[in-house]
Please model this.
Amino acid sequence: MPTASITPGGHQLVVVANRLPVDSRTLPDGATEWVTSPGGLVTAMESVMRTVDSGAWVGWGGSPGEAPEPFDADGMSLYPVQLDQQDIERYYEGFSNGTLWPLYHDVIVDPEFHRGWWDTYQSANRRFAKTAAQVAAVGGTIWVHDYQLQLVPQMIRETRSDVRIGFFNHIPFPAVELFSQLPKRNSVLRGLLGADLLGFQRESDSLNFVAAVRRLLGYQVEGKTIFVPGLGAAPVREVQVQTFPISIDSAAVSALTEDPEIRERAAQLRRDLGNPEKVVLGVDRLDYTKGIRHRLKAFGELLDDGSIDPHETVMIQVATPSRERVEAYRQLRDEVELIVGRINGEHAPIGRPAVSYQHHSFDRRDMTALFMAADVVLVTALRDGMNLVAKEYVASRPDLQGVLVLSEFAGAADELRAAMLVNPHDIDELKAATLRALAMPPEEQEEAMRSLRHQVMEHDVQYWAHEFLENLTASSTPKDDAKRVVRLSGDTPSDPAELEKALGEFTAVPRLLIASDFDGVLAPIVSDRDAVQPDQDALTALRELSELPGVAVALVSGRALADLDSHTAMPSSVVLVGSHGAEVGALPPWMQAEVLDKSSLGMTPQKEELLAAITSTLRRIARAHPGAEVETKPTAAVLHTRNAKGRGAINATDSALEYATTLPDVTVTPGKEVVEFAVVHTSKGVAIDALSRASAADAWLYLGDDVTDESVFAQLGDSDVGVKVGGGDTAAGLRIADTETVRDVLQRLLALRSAQS
Model:
């Protein structure tokens, strides 16, 4: 894997999509070769990535199991994401294509809702987000694509506030009445709103999204600017929603038509079909949204009633295989092949078909030849985000001949107004449009195609990408001081020699502050917080360290001060800091107490009233999710979800975080199975900074395991040492495995410092 450090040498533009832009192919000698894969997004993006100095693509490699190591292909750095077979079944085939796809396509088939699919969708999205966050440069741009990754923008923002985040939805976004059917709908909306700029194919999609945010989340909206409240006292963010119709590499497609081999291939196709007078073409993924059955029904009826002579007109239907493990797609294939078989059985002349059905993929050159050979192309999608086939056909006809029959429910209909627009649900209208297209005079074809080509050639994929990225830059200005560096990722402990070297250099400094979190560091996490058992040897080491000259020792915990005191029984030489810094215990006489500004810790009647209201709401949430508990502190209330039953932990946390957005004067801190609401604004980072100054420390060392400890690690100086206990992304410079290793580290610090005395 790439280095976990995020440095200015990272990638300035990172594209995140479900699939990498390449497919693996096993060669005869067993070696693996990566070849460019087909698909609208790949076609759209590959030319864009060629123009970027430092571009990366994060996506799944296409095979279940262990992900390959990162590699370069076609001038891009590719970072594969691991998906196992269960991920594919639940995240991709399940929630993405069994739930979201049909729902977002106007419920053409019924979506399925399964809670297990949602869980896997979340975990898979987390994997994509984590990889993207690791490889993006400080202040860089991350561009997330499509419905499979709707939670990724928010997940990236949680760790990389310095980057610009864009999201583009390639498929339609449904009306709020349909979207409201989606379980976890608010979580999806909040996931998307982690982006700075959200792009949609059609204006109606943009308006549908804004309406959903307004109605379901209640956020303030002005035009297409959404004001996203932060958690508690965090500032409001502005998110822009805009329309960016995607396109193709028009010039490259058009240039292929000048290739003599492709021209000959187009001519050969017509000869292979018996040189019919007219060729009608349909090109689609085999998907129920594409209207293939409607198109075949219309063509079959035209043959049935004698409006089309199969000796003169042949139809080619390309149906690229798609999601063949999904039952709805297998059923569609059976139906399409049955219809084609019936039409050919009743109407095909001897020696050639009435409908030539091609259930396989075509490369770009062969597809261009097909477009050049076709007199009429039928794009009859029942619902489509854009449909690039329509634009590829137009780009393939510099001869200004050919007719595009285009569904008004495809996004391309908004731009390609000179096409023959139809309602594909109306079979009679579709039949009439097909006959008009077949009979259209050359001069009328030329007039329409000239208009279509002007639109497609002027608004190509480079134009689309430039517009999106330019608007993304304008909509977000990452702050230079928001560079939350991720120094370590994963679970692997640091090299013991590296740890030993850091401890040795630290203990040689004249005046030290050694501080530690409690739960998960000095004591293993347990379900019953009152039954916690700290490591006594670790506590002994801290006590003895506090007695050495030039060493200050502190315990900094989210627990209330009295609770922390009762479980540690520390002497007065060890400073106890509770409630994430809101409570400070007795200080040793030599520590400069005046440096610790306690004025901010005072509770006013207004804060007491606010805390009571928060506590009441959290208790109501806890009652709705058995096993969840509420802890009260002098300046905070905490929702604990560790013992919640079933899915209660997830649901209670979601409810608490949603409530948090309504509290502009409260510091909200999500942690490991906890969400704390503090009416006094402080953090462990603030506490360590104050303790460091109060003890006149030349350097400090801090051990922590939780997200709340990251406020400490984020302010590490050159001489300071941050030690992360356990796995996960962190701004600490060193990682150790568990509480047993914490004991070893503290005993080693004691030995090294004692040797200095």
